[in-house]
Amino acid sequence: MKKNIWMTFLAVTLILTACGTPATPTPPPVQTEEPATTQTGFTSSDAVIASAEIIPAQDTQISFVISAPVKEVLVKEGDVVTAGQTLMTLYSPDLELAVTSAELELKAAELEFTYWIPARHDRPPERRQQAEAELEQAKKKLETAKATFAQTSLLAPFDATVVDVNVQVGELAQSGRAVIALGDIAHMQIETTDLSERDIPNVKIGQSVNVYIEALDITVTGKVLRISPVSETVGGDVVYPVTISLDEQPEGLFWGMSAEVEIQTQ
Questions:
Q1: pLDDT at residue 209 is higher than 80
Q2: I need a surface site. Which of 30, 164, 212, 232 has the fewest CB within 10 A?
Q3: What pTM does this model have?
């Protein structure tokens, strides 16, 4: 009787042990990491992504090399000017008088030289040589006077738009102080602001670029035009400015607008 009870107990124990064995756990599905994207939808695969800003193809702040009162301001903010156009002049009567005086001296030297040109026995050759030397000296003096007087005028160095005028007629223009700012805003470009030193080795001139302009909510295309050989430090990071030319300039593009660029490196 005890043997039967023991056998029954053993059988039940084996059955319960078999039923309670935990199943082998199923491994979780492997998740494939998606390529990183920016808020613009650009992907980082085979591309370098950086923030950027809109800049003119050329810009400059120009100043006089001498100090004098402003005589004329011939342009205003927003005017489109051409290379060589006079933008502003100074009042400098002394320099103007120096040009007039040099012109009179040159005329006198020309008359003196003309008198000695005929080869006559009563006109010694050394006097003719002296007249010739005085003529050359008068020419150089006039050239110098004109060059100095030219410093009273500011000329546009390239075709551009006047973006700022800092002085008015009658005010003193100080030597070296910018009085007019110009920018070629008809030909805008893109310049990166945070392209890392880790990414710059993959960037080459001529690579295609997608440019997302945040303010206009549009994407335009361009090409890498220039890579700065000198780094800058932004927020403790070493970055290299890269300049991008646009294939076509969209309407409403303004200097200083923000952009995001995707440079195709493959």
A1: yes
A2: 30
A3: 0.71
